[in-house]
């Protein structure tokens, strides 16, 4: 997929040998188990960023604060997590990040349920976001490193876990918030903790469930270190050992040898990352974290720099557009004179469940579309973004809850396809040795603009329709940018 000079030629030769070896092993038991446990990351990334919106109304009733501040705290944590874990997994390896992110989310999710005031809740959700923010950058890199090139489309299908997460959290929130919350519009004087336990029960449930998912990852499934990461660090023998263990686990054989990798040449050890005899490297040793090597590698040639810059722009644009829409639509509808008359917790969360169900077929449709000859990844992303923007525009015409629900069904269905493809194409367009860093940069872009949206909501005129229209235009523009991506991963094994 990459032109000559884009990737270190020695690494490229070794990566091709690894690709052939993993293809020889095939899509076996290990990869299908990985499909499940990596999916936990998509699940968490769906559940926890939604939590601020799901608990917002009852929390405001109890603590009385300016509502955008809760979203701001959560997005700051997600931003830090994307930077730390995305770039970090290219420095200290995938296994650390893969096994720690869910643990942080589970612990601080449980703790957030016991918050006695807004500052405590916002602080705990921010720390929780540090764990959640690393899930997708790390987990997509891990999955792509082990799956055969013939099955890379499954990275798109992994978004079904994102849809299941949405469905799960809304199914849990529906009875808990509807039945164990103060009446809407209550004040701290009339809304005591004992009357408003629904959002706490929700956080306890999700925190505990996240810890169960972490335990399944950590104690039941043994994640091997990525052979592509090991080769990129000059650890050929360890990479071959991982591939051979993978073959044994799947009940197949593999012909890859250390000699074949060594014959391709030697990759220079990154500056300051000297390895001991046992190839053990301290996490805090001087590594490429200081030399910026992984970031520079993503801009090695003009074509790769254009690809990386476009991906970062697309992620940032969609991140801003989505959060602007979610922040401003209720105010737009109210200012337009919409009379719903059924804004109860029950109706609100019932509608959320309906919208969540639509994401499940969207994931399978995305997985099919990205493999079609004349569409591919870029075409599917462009088409789904265009339709997402169109339905977003249409929501502004709603004058009753049924109309709003109908337009939102179209928006939800196509946006799930859009995100599924975006989550897949991004790691495919980065070389494996720098993939975590690339994923971290794109995730950072969407988190930075996610931070800007609640800031805009704090200071902008909330009665205007302009932000919602701007959101639709931005998502459509992101679709056009997708067509300008210089690489199409369809039919090509990722390096």
TrEMBL record:
Stored InterPro entries: MFS_dom, MFS_sugar_transport-like, MFS_trans_sf
Residues making up the signal peptide according to the UniProt record: none
Protein name: Major facilitator superfamily (MFS) profile domain-containing protein
Native source species: Phlebiopsis gigantea (strain 11061_1 CR5-6) (White-rot fungus)
Membrane-topology descriptor: Multi-pass membrane protein
Keyword Oxidoreductase: no
Pfam family, one: Sugar_tr
Broad class of the protein's primary localization: membrane
Major facilitator superfamily (MFS) profile domain: residues covered: 1-490
Protein family according to the UniProt entry: Belongs to the major facilitator superfamily.
Subcellular location: Membrane
Transmembrane segments: 32-57, 69-88, 100-119, 153-178, 198-220, 304-325, 353-370, 379-398, 404-425, 437-460, 466-487
GO function term, MF aspect, one: transmembrane transporter activity
